[in-house]
Amino acid sequence: MSTLARYFQFDELKTNHRTEFIAGLTTFVSMAYILFVNPSVLGAAGMDKGAVFTATGVAAAVATIFMGLVARYPIAIAPGLGVNAFFAYSVVIGMKVPWQTAMAGVLVAALIFLVLTFFKVREAIINLIPQDLKVAIASGIGLFIAFIGLADAGLIVANDATMVSLGHLSSGTSLLSIFGIIVTLVLISRRVPAAIFVGMILTAIVGILTGLIDLPSSIVSTVPSLAPTFGESIKHIGDINSFQLATVVLTFLIVTFFDTAGTMIGLATQAGFMKDGEMPRAGKALMADAVGMTVGAVIGTSPTSAYVESSAGIAVGGRSGMTSVWTGILFLLALFFSPLLGVVTSQVTAPALIVVGILMAENLRHIKWDDFAIAAPAFLIVIGMPLTYSISDGIALGFIVYPITMLATKRGKSVHPMMWALAIIFLVYLFIVAH
């Protein structure tokens, strides 16, 4: 048996090098869309798309390889959808915070993550916030992402009379997005591996054939420079000097906390890693996320998160950290294909955003809808995010109402002091800072 096989416990996990490579490749192909979607989302915030492309790949590679070598789990990590939308649309565009300052906020949150994870505080804090509110946050982000996707596709447009309305579906760009949405939904319904990625490729091809998308001048090139974004977060860390920006940092912490923890637990359950309801080496797995987020903030990308697409690799037999190592290596190799960025227009990425939104909304079934004291704040979180066009505002609405409804039902003592503190913080934020 090779040294690698012994280190990754191939015999105990009933796997081998071939299976782990195929699993790593499957996971990579399933989540490769983030290389093209993330630059599109952060590009809306004024960031250089080429630099974000490289930062996305490097951060994903570092975090995922760390996950494989240290935590030894077949779980991939990359800049997350949802939190990148919060970064671009809520913080930069909505609050009019320069992207450099927002990235400094990500770095501060990442450094706090490192400390909290090292002292095992992160797992404890996660347990303090009610499960229903955690899943409401995930669901709300899903609706928010889907709303952005529908708008990018031109299917939902602004309307002075009704606020929003159906767009002009007969336009070429809208028809291209509709094609992409239908194809992706069919592929996922048929359980086709890497359905989102395949859907994006097919949509891009149709766009090129119909003249809606320009053909790229090349496919392979040198890796785009990180210069436009590298180190900007460090230079602007002193700009985190207001209550509003402190709230932004807190929101980065909260959203990334729940997204990664929930995904890891779900994947560990799928792969059969859970023991007595707990995930072994959870601290090391969370550290991989914290390292990825820190590296990403320094080089220029939004917070990282564990990817549910890792389930595709697990489904084909990936059981050890070697799966993650292969996925990370493939992210590095993919950096040489940046010319394809021009092909990935908003009409190509819109179906991916909508479908990911649908998948995230699955969490709604875990909310106790028959308990109004819990359902009310959860609902406000879910509906508040798309309607306020802000993830943080949606979270604020739910966190403010939760202690009130629990107190009204004589369950005030069950509310952790931290939830009362968060309610006060968000109350001040909504009434004094944000508006």
From TrEMBL:
It is found in: Cell membrane. Pfam families: Xan_ur_permease. Its main location: membrane. GO terms for cellular component: plasma membrane. Transmembrane segments: none annotated. Keywords: Cell membrane, Membrane, Transmembrane, Transmembrane helix, Transport. It is a multi-pass membrane protein. Belongs to the nucleobase:cation symporter-2 (NCS2) (TC 2.A.40) family. Azg-like subfamily. This is AGZA family xanthine/uracil permease-like MFS transporter. It comes from Weissella soli.
